[in-house]
Every structure is written in C-alpha cells, then in structure tokens.
Amino acid sequence: MDLNENEMAWAEMAVTSTILRRAWEMELGQVGVTVPQALVLTFVATSAEPVTPMKLSRLMHREPHTISALLTRMQAQGLIKKERNLERGNWVRVTLTKKGKEAYERQLGARRVRNITECLSKQELESLNRMNRKLRAKGIELLRDLLPSPFGDPLW
Amino acid sequence: MDLNENEMAWAEMAVTSTILRRAWEMELGQVGVTVPQALVLTFVATSAEPVTPMKLSRLMHREPHTISALLTRMQAQGLIKKERNLERGNWVRVTLTKKGKEAYERQLGARRVRNITECLSKQELESLNRMNRKLRAKGIELLRDLLPSPFGDPLW
Question: Which domains does chain B have, with CATH numbers?
Fold first, then answer.
C-alpha cells in the first residue's frame, strides 16, 4: 500500500479519533449517557434559542431521520419532550425533562476525556484549534460535494 | 456552561472529527463500502501476518463481539472468508474473497477525504502527527482505566 504523507496522517487521525471517541463513550457510559444523547442534552441545555429537530440535525451533522429516531428514543426514556407550536404547523421545540436536566448535569461531571488536551502545550493547543478550523472548513466543503442534493444544500 | 480551554478544544475536535467521519462515510458510500468495512479490508489486505478476529478487535479498538458481528455481516456479503485452523482449536483466520479484494481496491480509489490534510502546511502536518501521537497515548491510558476489567487488560 503506497500512502502519501496526507494519507498517512489521515490514518493516524482516524485511529486517534476512534480511540478518543471510544474513551468518551466509556466515560459517558459510566454516567448512563451515550455520546449522541450528551450532544443533544448539551445543545438543548445551552442554546439561547428554541431548539428544533432540524437545528439539531445541522448542529450534529446528521440527517433529519437519524435525529428524529434519536429524539424518539430519548423521549421514550423520559429525557426530552417535544412541544408542538400550534401557530407554526409542524414546528416542534425540543426541551429537557427533569430527568434530562439531571442527565445533562451528570455528563458535565464526566471531565477526563473532555480535558484530554491537558497533555499538550499551550502553543500546541492553539495550533490544534487552528488546524481543526481549517480541517472543518474543508470537511464541510467536501460534504457539500458528497451529499446527495437536494438534501445537502439547505443543511450546509 | 463554563468550559475551560481544554474543554473548548475538545468540543472543536469532536465537531471536526464528526464532520470528517461523516465525509469519509459519504465518500466510501459512493464506492459501496462502510467505514468499519474499509478498516477490516485494509487491515486484512495489508497485514503481513495472518489476521484473526481478536487482532482486528485490538487494531480497531472495538470489543470482540462487535467485530464478530461485523465479520458475520461481511461474510454474508461475500467480502471475507473465515478459515478455521484445525490444529489450533478455535483459531480463525480472516481472508478476503475476490469480491472483498475488489472492494478494497475501490475504497483505495476514494482519496478525497484521506487527503484532507492537503489544506495544512508541511509544518502543521508534522505538528498534527506529533499531537495525534500524544493524544492517542493519553486516550489509550484513559481507556485502560475506563474499560471494565478483566476484559480491558488483555486488549490494551
């Protein structure tokens, strides 16, 4: 297999992010929350604006049907409520139940993986943030090209 | 929400890696391969040593039962074969079928996401590789702590 330096870097990144994601899953698992659930709980708990399923779909970079299935499961578990707005047809606002707020607080307390960059120097951390911004911009550009339209366009 | 600079960096990394993973899934989807399948195909195609399910479990940082289910699906799709070694009891070697080798070649041709670090300078790429090594070592350390023993130990 002849990999160039970018493809070798990608292999490194893919392995590293798999390990970090796995560690995050395990740590959140100890407080009874999954990674997608933690993301929903965080977005809903911290958003100044009402959160709709479509907004979560954009924030989490996942298709509406994936988010819809996730929200249905979270509602069944008593973590969120979906409130319909009668004036705006099918507009739905996602809010946290008491149990959802407690789960949000518990996942906030799981700090080890979220502080993993403590092993980097201040300069490295700045460099990492700068590279993440570049890679994210490029990733969104690639996704725009790769996503089947017409679904792709309004989301990105 | 009061996040420190590490936790903010983590949020950036989590979003970026989600977007990159999503783009990779989409690109591989165009050649009919999933991300976990591409990893198995690559490990089996490029390994100098015989590949066992346990070895894949270590390489992919996933539990044996997850890998077992993945391999069963890939076998049903005609991508891999599991060859039993009669001399070594339950020792199983994973090999690629003709269809599996073709799928491996197709995924090799999907190069856009794997070359995404082209948007970084040479110096940044070196710095990224160095940080990935540090983060990976720390991630494996955390996983060792987080994984329920006795399963955790032999794997890491």
Answer: 5-118 (1.10.10.10), 120-156 (no CATH)
Per-residue model confidence (pLDDT) at position B153? 41
Q: Is B47 on the interface with A (CB under 8 A)?
A: no
Q: Which DSSP letter does residue B152 get?
A: H
For the question of an ipTM over 0.85, the answer is no
In A31-156, where does DSSP find H-type helix? Answer: 35-46, 53-60, 64-76, 98-109, 122-146, 152-155
Chain A residues touching residue B21 (CB < 8 angstroms): 17
The answer for residues whose C-beta is within 8 angstroms of residue A118's C-beta and 6 or more apart is B6
Q: pLDDT grade, residue A149 (50/70/90)?
A: low
Q: How far apart are CA A97 and CA B73, in angstroms?
A: 38
CA distance B22 to A92: 26
Q: Which long-range contacts (CB under 8 A, 24 or more apart) does A77-86 make?
A: A79/A37, A79/A41, A79/A103, A80/A40, A80/A44, A82/A53
* Token pair belonging to A153: 């366009």
**Residue in this structure with the two tokens 């076998």, named with its chain if needed:** B75
Model confidence at B127, pLDDT cuts 50, 70, 90, reads: very high
Q: If we measure between CA atoms, which residue out of B100, B63, B102 comes closest to residue B82?
A: B100
The residue written with tokens 């995404």 in the block is: B116
Q: Is B45 an interface residue toward A (CB < 8 Å)? A: yes
